[in-house]
Structure formats: structure tokens, C-alpha cells
Amino acid sequence: MNHWICVTCGTQFAQSQEQPQECPICVDQRQYIGHQGQQWTTLATMLKEGHQNTFKEHEPGLIGIGTMPKFAIGQRALLVQTAKGNVLWDCITLLDENTVKAIEQLGGISAIVISHPHYYTTMVEWAERFQARIYLHEADRQWVMRPDERITFWSGETLSLVDDVTIARLGGHFPGSTVLHWAKGAEGKGVLLTGDTIYVVADRNWVSFMYSFPNLIPLPSAEIRRIRDVISHYSFERLYAAWFEAIVQTDAKNAVLKSADRYIQAIEKGL
Ligand SMILES: [Zn+2]
Ligand SMILES: [Zn+2]
Question: Which residues pair with 151 in a beta bridge?
Fold first, then answer.
């Protein structure tokens, strides 16, 4: 019996003897089947292949964790350190002993919050290892491939996790796509963690919003207006999307608002 992992999206499945037939997350229009066809691996195989995790402190209290060489979608997770326990924002597939030790030295993990199904990965392994609860928006419940009692499906628009950490459903990319607002980040000016609900583009003073990133399927302008309205209620100076370099360093709220305006203009009238 194995917990098989999809090589293209990094999602781990419930235990089975045989490899699953297909990965529903990759069959979906927001992802794709790998060019070699559907392939599966396991955590044990990944370790044999020499994958390991690297850590990078982005700012005090915010540590990025990513896998080298790149695996699946290649995102990095973020550990948010708070006085009332650490929050792991988004997840990555590889969990090894070095990673466990390093995170324990940083204070462990109390809660795991994942922006959307593309980063569910091996969330249950992480939750078991750190005795943490997982918070997923109930709108994306159908995409959980390894159900577990440690998962809490939250509902509604916002959830306050600890004093300075609030999660908000933004929708767009997925109906339950979530962002995390960390009020103490950026020297108290506020930080927004966005996964790829809000995507930092090549010009890092701007962001974008898509239904599918790999297949370049945009969102309707009404959705962008709604997202813009939700964001307008939060204060933040800096924004961290899903990769080590995907950061809007300053004036990030204004970057999101002006990017939403540009996007609406582009799809409704042209620039
Ligand atoms: Zn997949
Ligand atoms: Zn995604």
C-alpha cells in the first residue's frame, strides 16, 4: 500500500495498492497532464532521488521553504511565526527529517492554511508530524484527495486564526481561493500572502489574477471587481505570492488595486 503522489501537481492521495487512474486536479482545466502522461511517485522515492528543502528568511518572522531540485509546480511554503504558535501558509510535497528538525527549531507548526488545491500536496503528512490542524475553505472540499480528521473546512468570508493572522476567501482562481493577512508583517505595516490567488508578474510592481495560469485562461471582469473590493478592506505594504522571488516589496496594496483596474480595462476595452 502506498500514498501515491502526482508528479505534475505534487498532490498525495489516500492509501491504495495500485496507482490511482488519474489525478482529478491535473485533469481539471486549471492544470494539465504532464507531457510524459500521468506519472506517480512516493515520498520515499523523492528522498532517494535526492530532493531536499531549502529555507530562506524573507523578513523577521517569515520563512520560506522550497524544494530543490524543483518538484511539481515548484511553489514554496511560508512559515509565519506568531506569539501564539506558527502558521504554515501553503504546503510543499517533500517532508524529510532535516525539514522537521529545522521547523521544530523555529517553534513547530500549530496551524496549516492552504490557499487552494494546487498546494494541498502532502498536507496530511505535515499535520500528523507537527500535530497541527489544517484549514481549507469548504468551497474546495471536492479537491481533497487524502481526507483526514485533521482537516477543518471553514466557511464564510474570513477567519481569525490568532490575533495578528486573518485568512480571507478571495475566490477567482478557485471558489475557495484564500489569502492570509499578517498584520504584524512588514514592520507592522501588514503583509498579504496570496499563493497564486494574486500572482506577482514579471514586473514586480504589478500582479495578475487568472482562472488557469498554465493554460492562460482569464477571469471575468466582474470577478476582478469583486476581488478588488475585498482587498480594499485590508492594509498591507508587502505581498508574497507562491515563489521565492514573487514579492511586491513596497506599496503592495496599491499595486493590487491598480493591477485590478488595468486588468478590467484590458479585457473590457483594451489598453
Ligand atoms: Zn496532479
Ligand atoms: Zn493554482
Answer: 134
- DSSP state, residue 128: H
Beta bridge partners, 67, equal 53
Kindly state the cell numbers that stand for 24: 482529478
Taking the centre of ligand 2 as the mean of its atom positions, its distance from the CA of residue 160, in whole angstroms, is 23
Read off the pTM.
Answer: 0.97
- Give the tens place of pLDDT for each residue, 210-260: 999 999 999 999 999 999 999 999 999 999 999 999 999 999 999 999 999
Q: Determine the distance separating the centroid of ligand 1 and the alpha carbon of 111, expressed in angstroms.
A: 24
111-113 and 133-137 beta bridge pairing? parallel
Q: What pLDDT is recorded for position 153?
A: 98
CA angle 112, 254, 118 (to 5 degrees): 30
Q: How remote is the CA of residue 236 from the centroid of ligand 1, in Å?
A: 33
Please count the other Cβ atoms lying within 10 Å of the Cβ belonging to residue 226: 16
CB 36 within 8 A of CB 145: no
Distance 206 CA to ligand 1 centre (A): 29
Position 163 confidence tier, pLDDT thresholds 50, 70, 90: confident
CA of 196 to the centre of ligand 2 (A): 6
- Cell numbers at 141, concatenated: 472540499
